[in-house]
């Protein structure tokens, strides 16, 4: 009997939705004839005894999930997410560079080093990219350290915080939208799709507003209701990163689609799989087919 390790941490179990999704993943693996076991960081050495590893904790090149992925790779164990995907998607400069290299449609994007944060350079960015601008600290996740600025003074207020954490800032053209597409792919094949409806009080899928966390609405969308060019763009973006599991965020205004980012560890517990009941079956089959 093959053994699937599901790598988790306490934050993974922070909500009923996440816990239910993990139990569903385990149950699907067992129904397919595999043994499934949750592995916490304290038990990381158990990975060596697994036949496949599915990481369901927040991935980051600087935390234990990357160690788990490298341990699996070193021992020849198929893993989602693989170390390279974690490295690329964990740094937005790397991620956008990979997408630009493949000609993927993006908002106009500039990588600004901290030594180039000058009044003249910032003013020129407003001239070339428009107003407002979106600033991102490269290691951000869950919409943290993503800010919208409307003038040079606002740019500097945000930039001073970000350059304490990174030598670079990602500066992007702002694109208005009421919702984002989140399209999931596994091995360059469509896995699921949903719409993230942006709350009116923010421009992000998750934000702190007046001391409260505000989340986007999530609506699962069946395959026949996804614009074909959105799927094609998502496949191209995922392919630019690798052949693993990715959630591609896309804005599609008047048919002019562009990729906002590629997530190497997309959520699967907020209704994303409503029209895709075989999500976990496909993931498990993919892991054990390697």
Provide a descriptive summary of the structure in words:
There is one protein chain. This protein has 290 residues and is α+β, with helices and mostly antiparallel strands. It has three domains: 3-82, 3-Layer(aba) Sandwich (Rossmann fold), CATH 3.40.50; 91-104 and 177-263, D-amino Acid Aminotransferase, Chain A, domain 1; 109-173, Dna Ligase, domain 1. Helix content is 31%, strand content 28%. It is built from eight helices and 15 strands. It has helices at 16-31, 64-74, 83-89, 92-101, 119-129, 152-162, 228-241, 279-289; strands at residues 3-7, 35-39, 52-55, 79-80, 109-113, 133-136, 146-149, 168-173, 179-186, 189-197, 206-209, 212-215, 217-220, 245-253, 256-263. The radius of gyration is 19 Å and the shape is globular. The mean pLDDT is 90.
């Amino acid at each position: 009997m093959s053994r699937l390790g599901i790598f988790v941490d306490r934050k993974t179990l922070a909500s009923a939705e996440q816990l239910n999704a993990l139990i569903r993943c385990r149950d699907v693996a067992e129904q397919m004839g595999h043994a499934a076991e949750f592995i916490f960081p304290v038990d990381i050495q158990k990975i060596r005894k697994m036949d496949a590893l599915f990481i369901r904790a927040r991935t980051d090149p600087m935390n234990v999930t990357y160690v788990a992925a490298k341990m699996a790779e070193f021992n020849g164990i198929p893993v989602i997410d693989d170390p390279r995907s974690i490295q690329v998607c964990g740094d937005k400069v790397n991620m956008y560079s990979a997408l630009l290299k493949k000609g993927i449609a993006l908002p106009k994007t500039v990588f600004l080093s901290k030594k180039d944060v000058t009044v003249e350079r910032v003013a020129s960015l407003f001239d070339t990219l428009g107003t407002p601008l979106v600033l991102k600290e490269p290691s951000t996740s869950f919409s943290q350290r993503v800010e919208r600025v409307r003038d040079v003074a606002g740019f500097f207020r945000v930039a001073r915080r970000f350059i304490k954490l990174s030598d670079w800032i990602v500066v992007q053209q702002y694109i208005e939208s009421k919702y984002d597409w989140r399209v999931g792919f596994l091995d360059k094949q469509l896995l699921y799709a949903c719409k993230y409806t942006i709350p009116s009080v923010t421009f992000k899928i998750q934000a702190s507003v007046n001391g409260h966390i505000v989340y986007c609405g999530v609506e699962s969308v069946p395959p026949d209701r996804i614009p074909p060019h959105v799927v094609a763009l998502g496949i191209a973006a995922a392919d630019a990163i690798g052949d693993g599991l990715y959630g591609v965020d896309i804005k599609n205004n008047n048919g002019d689609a562009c990729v906002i980012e590629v997530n190497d560890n997309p959520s699967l517990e907020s209704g994303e799989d409503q029209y895709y009941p075989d999500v976990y079956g496909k993931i498990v089959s993919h892991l054990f087919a390697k």
